[in-house]
Amino acid sequence: MTALYIILGILLVLFLLSLLRLGVRVEFTGSLAETRVTVIAGPARIQLLPKPEKPEKPQKEKKKKEKPAKAKAEGGEKKKKKLHLTKEDIKTALPALWECLKNGLRKTRQRLLLDPLHLSASLPGAADPAGAAELYGYVNAGMWTVMPQLERLMRIPDPRLHVEADFDASELRLTGEVGVTLQIRDLLAIGLAFAKPVLRWYLAMQKRHSAQEKAQAKENGAAPKEHDTADRTPSGDGADHITT
Questions:
Q1: pLDDT in tens, 25-79
Q2: What is residue 155's DSSP assignment?
Q3: Given the DSSP bridges, would you call strands 159-166 and 113-124 parallel, antiparallel or unpaired?
Q4: What's the chain's Rg over C-alpha atoms?
């Protein structure tokens, strides 16, 4: 009977923890250097950016341990393989990610809160006015396509969004504040909604890249190679001369 009480107590604690709200609040003031990021964990508030100043502690001199030359050589030879995303990869990923997000948000049953949502963006157009105007059109089209669906899937009490193109500016200016909070169980639901489709997309991308590499290698191998050819021509005295 004691074991049953312990198990029920653990389940109760896990359930209460799943109801804990997590989130993040970002305040934009025009430049990245002035951006303020605060993490929310229940009643706690932890400021990530800008980092709070800490009193300087006297630093102790530490002796540097020299690695063996062999280890250094092996470490230098090993290179991490970077993931290269092409336009085709991004183009195929966006619809899948959007569907994953919608499925995950449906499972939260509007427990995800997006408040505040106050953003004002000024697009730079001094260098490329035509490009800025085109980007302005894309941003507005995307914003008014996505926002109605998000308002059905989550709680957004007071959305305020404004986008403009400044043809005299040379840098993007973003002001406002955004706050997102959700319960831990909702975070797990969204993660599970993303897991399988994202893994499927990643494997398909790897397969596509592998096929492209094999095709490229085959094409390079089929290219004519230059070889030194030896042509033997008979001479007048019957001796063989090799010309290259």
A1: 999 887 666 788 999 988 888 888 777 666 666 666 655 555 555 444 444 444 5
A2: B
A3: parallel
A4: 30
The amino acid present at 72, given as its one-letter code, is K
Distance CA 139, CA 145 (A): 10
The answer to whether 100 and 189 are in contact (CB under 8 A) is: no
CB–CB of 132/123 below 8 Å?
Answer: yes
For 107-144, the pLDDT digits (tens) are: 887 888 999 999 999 999 988 999 999 999 999 998 88
DSSP E strand stretches across the chain: 21-29, 36-41, 44-49, 113-124, 159-166, 173-183, 231-234, 240-243
- Please state at what angle helix 184-222 crosses helix 2-18, rounded to 10 degrees: 70
Residue 36: partners with Cβ closer than 8 Å, 6 or more residues away: 26, 27, 29, 47, 49, 50
Order of all β-strands in the sheet with 173-183: 44-49, 36-41, 21-29, 173-183, 113-124, 159-166
Spatial contact of 35 and 26, defined as CB atoms under 8 Å apart: yes
Helix or strand holding residue 69 (H, E): helix 69-77
